[in-house]
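Data availability (excerpt). All sequences and predicted token strings are deposited with the supplementary files. A representative entry, Myomesin 3, is shown inline so that the format can be inspected without opening the archive.
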Amino acid sequence: MGTRAFFHHREEEQKEERKHSLEMTSMTRKKREKKFYLDFCQLLSSCSSREYNLRREADILELEQRGQKRIRFGNDMEKMEEEVIRICRLLRVRADRKGLCRKVRAKEFLELRSGRAPMFWIPLRAHGVWERMDVTLTCTVLGSPVPQATWYKNGIPIDLRQAPAGKYKIKNRFGMLTLHISRCSMEDSAEYSVEVKNQYGEAYSFATVLVRKYYGKESGFDSEIYKRSLLAREADFAFPLKPLFAREKAPFTLSCYFSSDLLDHQRGITWFRDGELLQDSEGQELRCQEREASVTVPCAHKEDEGFYTIRVPSLDGYKEQTTYVFVRDAAALTAGAPGSPLNVKCHDVNKDCLILSWVAPSDDGGSPILGYLIERCVAGSEEWVQCSAQPVKSCRCPVLGLAEGQTYQFRVKAVNKAGTSRPSKASDPVTTYDASRDKRVTVIPYDEGRTIEISKDDLEDIKIPLPPTNVHASEVREDYVALAWDEPDPRGREPLNYYVEKSLVGSNSWQMVNLEMPANSPRFALFDLVKGKSYRFRVRSVNKFGISEPSLPSPPVTAGAKLAPPPPPSQVLAFRDTKTSVVLQWDKPKDGLEPLGYYIYCRETGTEEWQTVNNKLICSPRFTVPGLQPGKEYVFCVKSVGEAGLSESSPETDPIVVRPAIACPSAPHGFVLLHCGKTEMTIGWKAPKRKGGTKILGYFLDQHDHSEPDWHEVNTQPIPRRVCTVSSLQQGHLYEFRARAMNRAGVGEVSEPSDLFRCEEWTMPEPGPPYDVRCTEVRDSSLQLHWEPPLYQGAGPVTGYFIDLCEEGSEEWKQINKQPTATTHMKVSDLETGKCYIFRVRALNKAGVGPPSLPSDPVVAKTKPGTNEIELGVDEEGFIYMAFEAPEKNDSSEFIWSKDYEGPPDADRVQIEEKGNRSKLILKEPSEKDLGVYSVEVTDVDDDISASCTLTKEDLDKLLKRSHEIRNPLIKLISGWNIDVLEKGEVRLWLEVEKLSPNAELHLIFNDKELTSTPTHKINFVREKGLVELIIQDFCADDKGMYTAQLKDGKAKNQFTLVLMDEAFAKVAEEAEAKRRQWKKKQGPHFIENLTWKILENCEVLLTCKVTESGLNSFTLSATPLKIQPTEEGIKIYTDVKYYTDYMKTTWYHKEKRLESRDRMRAGSTMNQIWLHILDPTEADKGKYTLELFDGKSSHKLSTDLSGQGELKKLKGSICSFPGRARVVQGLPDVATIMEDKTLCLTCCVSGDPYPEITWFKNEKVIVFKDRYKMDVKGSVVTITIEKVCNEDTGKYSIYVKNKYGSETGQVTISVYKHGEIPIETEQEIPAEITTKKPK
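Structure token line:
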């Protein structure tokens, strides 16, 4: 208080000093002007006399000369010229006099301002504003040098970075200080002060801002507005705005819905993003309908992310809602590529260059960002040109080579090892211009808006320009050094260009760096400096007359100084906020430069994948993370963002469960008199709208006798119910009541006083009003209404209830039910979706209908997003259940189940289980006794969370059937037993069931005995296909009987039986025997009867068997003529036969010469084919080929001819047509010559899949690559290099490529000649260091 009084006293003293100073200044100024005028006249007279004499002599001399030339015109011409000269002289004198006056006054003003302590010329003044209005505090300050200003609120400095976005705007223009406070709230009522100080002193000014709240009719004014409010109810928000998750490059629409039609005065809706007003434009479309307002962004960018606020005018001021719109990264063009940069901005714009800055993306794609690519285009076109040849490593870079007067846009792409990101949003259009022109050009207005421009350059007669001055490095980065200098003064008329020279520190040699591209503006950037070395720079000016001397060298500049990323934040803490949001706060990094902003990341506990929370920078160290899943547990971390990129991650926060923060409850409301005696009253009220995230523990009630001034407590201990009987009252007196709710966080705010109730005993015969009318299970067209019966019964018990409905904004009540309902609940259907309704209930007894209840709270007939219904089903163990999952739930919340809305179901018939946000009601022994309506509610939450489900007889039968199937499951049969007789006479018995698990079991029973897999009875059980098969090798009478497959898979089981007897068995056995005989016959000679033995009478042993005839003669008839087939390796000659055995002899002949199997000729056979394979066929392989077969009795011959030239070429072409065959596709010249001591390079292209083996030969000998011989393989290009060729290198070189599909050779003959010799008969001479290639 002492300090504040001191400042006020000092402010009063300053006012007196200022008043006295104004008076003294006025007197002094008059004296000075008078003295100055006398001195100036004397000076002017002395100066003008000398100048006048000189000019007069010059004019007389000139007139004499002119008179001599123009003597024939006489004295008239001379007089006119003298008059013109006189007038011109007077004009010059007046102009000089005015210019001198201006200079003297300017000098006096500068002397007056220099070295002055700050003072307030116009101080701050107090303001009183309405809530949600803007206010601007303004003051004017004088001082030299210009003082620095600091604003305070209640003695605390105002920090724009910590304040809400757009809350404060501070300006300092030409000594006028302004503080703009937007959308004032009650918290903005405070004492504001501004401190100004410079090196000569300091000054203070104070003002109070009072924010008033408008209370409607209670305020006592604006009666006309209040009358209008009685005619129609204002529209309110139907639902709170939910966070919106959009995708980059995709459109999004943020919509806000209202409870009723907007009134005329509410249509001035405004939208804000991060505190900035949004206007309807191409980038965003604003719409307003009767019950909806929306903002649409047709193509979202990361810059569109932020807090969106809608402001709706109302009679009380404004109503607002705010939500956050997230813009996720678009899908990367390449997997693992980073996200796109953002906030591309242009700085320091000149004629041919500018500085571009941007912000690094939050997602690096999983690998560090290596750099950024900059692209530009002329505004209005879509042709983007890359500006930088190499990626730029920092988030700031100069752009050179621009055209003066051209309008450009820029965008940036991020690059990592996986690829390139999508481009950023294009920058705002920027036009290059001469930044120093305004300093050199004076604009003189005249004649109603016209102007005259006078350029300083036109007055300077400069030929060869002067050197620039103040050469220095404006920016030093890892990639570049940006230079800046001042233009020479005087500059001259001609356009200037600049050449930049550099020199290493310690060296006297200078090197020009931009000879081919002179700079047009006093800015230039160098990109290729050696890191770690120090340089000095100087600049020369050049115009059409010549080049200037070099400027003074700049201070030493060390290139390649790497900009370090900012350090990560510390002390990251997470706090509960709402059911879908968490508040994060952290400490700013203490070391290094202050970061540009922060990125937040989160992950759900139990997962490893981090999700980006924001793609747009957050500037303040506090943020509310919305859009989280209620009840889930999360971990958070934060990264700082700087010009060099992103910092390391901060330490992770402790895991936090997303639940509302515990707070004190709001005030109760809706007081009603339920019963009244002579000296007591029973009061009821409604629960608070906000319960504070925990259970309401009780209420405190106060009473007030209207004839007394004070309020009195009714209870000192909290009342758990919302009904209280107040006794010891005075009959006939008027009383009002108020209450406060209490939870674990404390006692909430007190409610508004109730209406006045008179304490008179009720004797009416009708019942009293019902109370606690509330709505649950609100859906698009229906809801469930509940109420409590009246406490006053009247002349008899209550026999029923009537329900009335009223649309919000109307005063007309409509009775819903024609007949009274006997229960205290009722389902209301056929509601209009989106409309707001109010309900009330009246009780009925034999005396009549009593007074209506207090109306319910307004409710909108619309299903809220995320509403869940009761799930009816059967679990894995076969129990019938009803489950409900709450979208949100507090620590103290409970699931309240009821049956037919009459109370909880019988505990002997149901079992209730809870886990997290899910509650499960299990029917122990389901029967018709369990039929009915089951409902569930979640307690201690602000919004209604409830649902119901009707269990009918039909539903119960289906569930019981499903329960039986689960408890006694059967394996499903797809195909029953099938019998197949295979080619060899084997019998296959098989069946197919549904897919089984790996733990499934099979028991195959045959005639009451379990079979196991043997060579003669092979059992196959393919579980993943559900296949069971039994293969019997020799099907006989022993296999007659019943086959049963018993399957078991977990609880599921089944068995399937096959009866194979009598006619069915005989049919299968006959077919199997026939196929067995046929198969053996196909196999050639075989035993019809097996070997048996018999003892004869003479004691000899007779061994007998029966075989088929050999049938070898039939072989030649079954052999096909020889066929020719091209293969991957060469040519195949073959014949197809029915069967072939080893004792048959085969011989191949070529031109009557017997062939042996070797490397190029391979003979072979299979059971059905005899073949000869010719590898890499040549011209020598042409001719007649003969195959000789010998069956033990005679020989048989088959022949074919390869003599045809066309046929062999065709076969070779077929061989080469294999796509994977090794080939020399672009080969070598046939002959080439080269001079001694030169370097020979032979290059060719090869192909093949798989990639072929490569071998080089010299004179048919393998080349060993060492010393002078080197081979290089790059993809399909193969190069051999021979250094310093000599005469020994003359010879035939060839390349041999080979893979599994074939081979090919390319050849070239090299001739080496000596110096001075002329190569003879050469096809091509190879210049040194030139690669040889031969066209296709």
